[in-house]
């Protein structure tokens, strides 16, 4: 159902922290023009943790309306509260999102049975395609392979974004669940081997700054043109690295600021990219021709 380069879209902000709606609209148009396969609105890269509830809903609606059915929109609706996850996922369905991205509940550290019951309740109560999101480095809990396999039998669970960076786990997911759900990478640096292992694509941070390049690399890999995919991936490698010099989305928001798409706004407790890392990031953007003269 979902494939290729899916951007985990940032939420542009003014210097006072308010959502910059004009910049957000321009970024959506940029992705439509550059060949991005789908957009995630208000995922963790979109600073879901610091948007308030009304802003979260407004950004989802705005992106859905701006895209206007031209590519799929996936709404980030996960929370560490099952009730809030249900409310946000219902809202996503009501405003016309094509799917919901549900991060594993963070901080709570639920058991595997708790994770299963959390995702099962949302899957059964809200009839919209749903993508599980496993990112233990952020959430403090791992969705075990056995739990994913149980969830893959639910009709509304259509994919998983796995951000462990573990190719062995990706292969195991494809073997156990690949016939029932799409397996997507959550790590830009391993997208090529991930796809060659049977994955369908990536929910990408790098695609914010290099959408055409990420889309081309994924398409080459999915079509079996490994040589072309590898060449494109090699070109992208310095940018993948630079975009994680500090916690995401700090570097990618600064990259888009350098590219002229938005101001430097970001919400505390995150702060703009440190001076010490700006040169390396700028050099990575310049190598790909992403900075104007």
TrEMBL record:
Its EC number is 4.3.3.7. This is 4-hydroxy-tetrahydrodipicolinate synthase. CDD domains: DHDPS (cd00950). The active site is at 133 (proton donor/acceptor), 161 (schiff-base intermediate with substrate). Pathway: Amino-acid biosynthesis; L-lysine biosynthesis via DAP pathway; (S)-tetrahydrodipicolinate from L-aspartate: step 3/4. The record marks 44, 107 as: Part of a proton relay during catalysis. It comes from Thiohalorhabdus methylotrophus. It catalyses: L-aspartate 4-semialdehyde + pyruvate = (2S,4S)-4-hydroxy-2,3,4,5-tetrahydrodipicolinate + H2O + H(+). Pyruvate binds at residues 45, 203. Homotetramer; dimer of dimers. Belongs to the DapA family. Its main location: cytoplasm. It is found in: Cytoplasm. The keyword Oxidoreductase does not apply. One of its GO terms (molecular function) is 4-hydroxy-tetrahydrodipicolinate synthase activity. The keyword Zinc does not apply.
